Amino acid sequence: MAGAMVRISACALLLSTMVFAVMAAQPYPKHPVPNNKKSKCKVEKYEKCYDSEHVCPRNCPGGDCVVDCVSCKPICKCDLPGAVCQDPRFIGGDGITFYFHGKKDHDFCLVSDSNLHINARFIGRRNQNMMRDFTWVQSIGAIFDSHKLYIGALKTSTWDDSVDRLAVTVDGEPIELPLSAGAKWETNGVSIARSRNTNSITVEVEGNFKITANVVPITEEESRVHNYGITQEDCFAHLELGFKFYSLSKEVNGVLGQTYGQDYTSKVNMSAVMPVMGGTRKFLNSALFSTDCSVSRFGLGGIEPVTAGSEFAGLECGSSMEGRGIVCKK
């Protein structure tokens, strides 16, 4: 009984920390046009909500959302643990929101473990009034087993959501999917499927990880509000990402990966308007498919795997306050 009370108290403290951390992050910019993207509850056991369609909140980055089947309400994908969106805004495995700006035209280690290493290529523009770049994730390179997966956003000037701007390769071979939601390619436990007709895919490697990737532009409104200085020559198409891990070790590292570590404690200032994680040098890689960042764990044998995010496996999460809060419960 006493052990149960300790677990309940610990869970309550964890959840209150998660809610406070996300509330501290900057609110999403208002979009000038309504969001026409929709999502459904896909869990059959929630009979009252199953298969019901919901319009995504207009303030979701990229417009994408999922439906929380418990509350039967849509939630921005960028509000879920494992999300990497915007000027990179991360939701860690511990539920805490932070920003990692890195540096434009450089590659950084997002996740590094014994059998999984994921890097991200940052693109951006220099802000002359600040001491950093405005940055976004243009592509990712994932190394697992003996394979290499590339997901990237193609450079484009004028954005048209009906034109596919995704590039995907496995071991250097381009993966060409029909422009139809549900179109799928799979081999040896690796599957790649379109979530929509264009610019949205889900990649899953059995027993290892799942990635959702959407290509989105910087809109004129976002550029105006944040003073990005985006021109008609390049709308800085980039990836909005969601990660789910099935078998990370206790020693996992990387900008995002470390937040799933057993002994990890966040050092970001959660009371800041924009809580920023440092460590640019230790997460820097020499190339998109290199594993030479100083925190690399890739290829190190003898590391005991654990179920990633096991503390949160039974959590049901919902967002509120226009994307500024996450509430999770067992």
Automatic annotation (TrEMBL):
Question: What keywords were assigned to this record?
Answer: Signal
- List, alphabetically, the InterPro entries matched: Root_cap (IPR009646)
Keyword Signal (UniProt)? yes
> Which Pfam families does the UniProt record give?
Root_cap
- Which branch of life, at top level? Eukaryota
Where does the UniProt annotation place the signal sequence? 1-24
In Swiss-Prot or TrEMBL terms, this protein is called Root cap
Q: Which organism is it from?
A: Papaver nudicaule
